[in-house]
Amino acid sequence: MPPRSTGVQPGVDAAEQDTERPTVQRQNVRNDTITSSLKLSLSRTTHRTRLRTISPTAFSPSHFDEVTPKCIHITTLGEGWADTLPLHRFVAPSDGSRTVDVAFDQGSLGPYTAEDLHAQADEGRGLELEDGWLIESARSPVHNFAYRRLHEFIEAAAVEAGASVYVDRGGDWEITTSAGIRKPDVFVVPRSVAQEWFRDDGPAVISGRDLQLVAEVVSPGSRSERTDRHRKLREYAAMNIPHYWIVDYAPRPRVRVFSLSDYETDPIGNKTGAYRLDRLVEATDTLEVEVQSDKPFTVRFEPRALVEF
Fold first, then answer.
1. CA 92, CA 30: separation in Å to the nearest integer?
2. Which helix (H) or strand (E) holds 136?
3. CB under 8 Å to 254, separation ≥6 — which residues?
4. Cα separation of 247 and 305, whole Å?
């Protein structure tokens, strides 16, 4: 396979390039019988860019070389992030049953797709797909106990309020973000969204934009700790997920509660959220958060209860 073009001038560091009309190099995206190509000209940007997924109908036909009707995909860039977030390509199974976005940045894209993830042992339940790379989720008995307890507290609150939501964890469920496929420890989604996948024998893929709450239990010192604390903070905000909880069980139980503080709107009207830290709930304090749904419900518990046997 020939190397992918990076779009970088020879002998010039990518971080130093700043041109008036850079062009995203044409990329062929192939998955079984589905192939699409895109070529997008950008008015001006630097190496520090912000990406948003938008509908291809927002662009004139001149932005595309070819687009197959089964693929919905295009990204545009604006300025503002402190780091570079990767561009997307979309991968769809040949039966057209679902579309999964896989991120890339014109050179650092890994060789793996959603199909490779599902081909792994146990259909890749312990793996995430990040920028085309398969990333193993760090789990331990204490980690697993903590997220199960968290699941119980959230589900009990939803049931008590009569909310039509589904509470579960990643593994069997796959959540798409700008990076690819995430498998959060606990998430809440409208029951109507989850029901669509109970009729499908394949992996259940849900857009991050459908989630009402997402939580990650951090394994200290693990490879995934930085991702949970930093990268997913941006990814989940970009998906406009109203609540993100970062849960620690060591050295002491506590929960960081993040919620969307405001939205930024791009030129075509798409909104991207940003999180603020609402509170840091220590072990013996009481977490109390209202989750908006068809029937709002309030989750209450003390973080220390997450590790009490």
1. 9
2. strand 133-136
3. 247, 248, 280, 281, 282, 283, 303
4. 12
Classify residue 271: in a domain, yes or no: yes
- 154 shares its domain with 228: yes
Please tell me whether residues 105 and 192 are part of one structural domain.
no
Q: Do 165 and 221 belong to one domain? A: yes
Within 10 A of 259 (CB to CB), how many other CB atoms are there? 18
* DSSP secondary structure letters along 75-112: EEEES--SSPPPEEEEE--TT-S--EEEEE-SS---S-
pLDDT digits (tens, 9 = 90+) for 166-225: 999 877 789 999 889 999 999 999 999 998 887 667 678 899 999 999 999 999 988 889
| Number of Cα atoms under 13 Å in the Cβ half of residue 238 | 19
Residue 244: helix, strand or coil by DSSP? strand
Domain range for 219: 141-307
3-state DSSP assignment of residue 233: helix
Tens digits of per-residue pLDDT, 130-179?
A: 888 888 877 789 999 999 999 999 999 999 999 999 999 877 789 999 88
Maximum pairwise Cα distance, the chain: 63
Q: Are residues 205 and 76 in the same domain?
A: no
> How far apart (Å, rounded) are the C-alpha atoms in residues 131 and 274?
21
